[in-house]
Design a protein that fits this description.
single chain; alpha/beta; TIM Barrel; 8-stranded parallel β-barrel; 10 helices; globular; binds 2-phosphoglycolic acid
Length: about 250
């Protein structure tokens, strides 16, 4: 089984999100082969969750506030997303880390809050181009993993990781499948220290209907996190269908 998650970012407004959810609700995939979720903008998440309630797709939050309620202007808590039917939460996406200057302690709080609220966090990690140029890829990933997991108690199966090199996100410059395989294998070794049980690791960064099988055909890569392409109904459904048709 492979995970295919679609992060709609801030690409789609309310009506566009609802229209896409309605289209996806009509699709039929084999959930033994693909585990599917979409992450709409917060403003659309309730309606999208309602539209997809009896479909093959779960819904997730793109970002969560770690405190459950209170005087936090502009924020939406993990608990609030859980209450409207979300199953997952992206935590520490590179756009949150880099554009919103989210630090590792914030990422950690969001990870814990998601778990407490009963959401399954998808921790996003990835190195920048400069990290790679300075031969600091593993150093960066190690730091991100350590600050997220040191001392954390989790039950097996209760979280995922997405390896998303920053330079590959939205650029068309996808990571070579062999490289993604090596790094994801290394991440799986690294997290053994934290006794987290089984944590699926996805690849993300310029995944398309054309290149998806080059990732999902690798056994260590448990699925993909798709950005831009997941907002386009035909491309996204053909991406899912090609994985759906291949794997048991
Ligand atoms: P992309 O985004 O597929 O548009 O590169 C991936 C992501 O940010 O999750």
């Amino acid at each position: 089984m492979k995970y295919i998650f679609g992060n709609w970012k801030m690409y789609l407004g309310y009506s566009e999100s609802v229209d896409l959810a309605k289209d996806l609700a009509l699709q039929n995939f084999d959930t033994q082969k693909v585990s599917l979720a979409v992450f709409p903008a917060a403003i659309a998440s309730k309606t999208v969750a309602d539209e997809l309630q009896n479909s093959n797709f779960a819904v997730g939050a793109q970002d969560v506030m770690w405190l459950p309620s209170g005087a936090y202007t502009g924020a939406v808590s993990a608990q609030m997303f859980k209450d409207i039917g979300c199953r997952y939460a992206l935590v520490g996406h590179s756009e949150r880390r880099h554009i919103f200057e989210e630090h590792s302690d914030t990422v950690r709080k969001k990870l814990e809050a998601s778990r407490e609220a009963g959401l399954i966090p998808v921790l996003c990690v990835g190195e920048t181009k400069e990290d790679t140029e300075q031969d600091k890829r593993q150093y960066r990933l190690k730091k991100q993993l350590m600050s997220a997991f040191e001392g954390l108690r989790l039950n097996s199966g209760s979280m995922l990781i997405a390896y998303e090199p920053v330079w590959a996100i939205g650029t068309g410059d996808a990571c070579l499948p062999q490289d993604a395989e090596d790094i994801i294998g290394w991440i799986k070794q690294e997290i053994v220290h934290y006794s987290l049980g089984n944590v699926p690791v996805l690849y993300g960064g310029s995944v398309t209907a054309q290149n998806v099988l080059s990732y999902t055909s690798i056994s260590d890569i448990d699925g993909v996190l798709v950005g831009g392409v997941s907002t386009k109904k035909d491309e996204f459904t053909s991406l899912i269908r090609s994985v759906n048709n291949l794997y048991v």
